[in-house]
Every structure is written in C-alpha cells, then in structure tokens.
C-alpha cells in the first residue's frame, strides 16, 4: 500500500498545485452555485472587472436549454453575441473586448446579458484602455 501526502494551494479558482509543483485538476467547478428547478439561470460577475483586454464570463442554465449571451453598450446597442446550449454544469466564455466585426471596443461601461427562455440576468463590466 502506498500513501501519498499532497498539499493543495489555490492558484486560480479551479486549479491547484502539489508540493512538487506538478499541476493537477481537483475539479472543474466554475465557482457557481447549483441551479435549482425554479432557478433556470445563474450569471456570475465577470472577472477581471474592470478589464483591459479580456474578461471571463461564467454562467449556468438548466441542461439542454438554449442560452443567448449578449454584450451591450450603455445605449443598449449590440456589441457581441454568442449562443450556447446549457450543459447544467456551468459554462464560461472569454470576451476579448472585440465587437461582432472583430474590432476592439472603446473603453467604457458594457453590460453582459444572459437569457434562457423568459429569464435574463445582467452584469455590468467596465472596459479600460489597454
């Protein structure tokens, strides 16, 4: 019988390191609470926020549900759009600060809107000059 002693320390929300500095994955958790039957959608606060070049957007919906993710400017104009099918385990998408045409967006306030069915959630994100 072999006995292994491992010390895990947080380096990122979902990655841990061992004493011998070999990285291993403990879990694939996105840090979102479990969705409940009456709660079809969860949108976490984008990170980092404020952002310079990119920000991670994490969300969770009921498994199999279509999810629309929109980035809107302060006037409500569409900047970026992505479509997903919820896995039920949580998903993430990295916004690189570009619009639908691939152009770099201006510094300012933007809104991340995630919708599934008749349920929506919105988070604010601030884009800084790179």
UniProtKB/TrEMBL annotation:
List, alphabetically, the NCBIfam families matched: Por_Secre_tail (TIGR04183)
Give one Pfam family, short name only: Por_Secre_tail
Q: Which domain of life is it from?
A: Bacteria
The record's listing under InterPro entries reads: Secre_tail
List the source organism: Eiseniibacteriota bacterium
Name of this protein: T9SS type A sorting domain-containing protein
Q: Which residues form a coiled coil?
A: none
Q: Which residues form the Secretion system C-terminal sorting domain?
A: 47-126
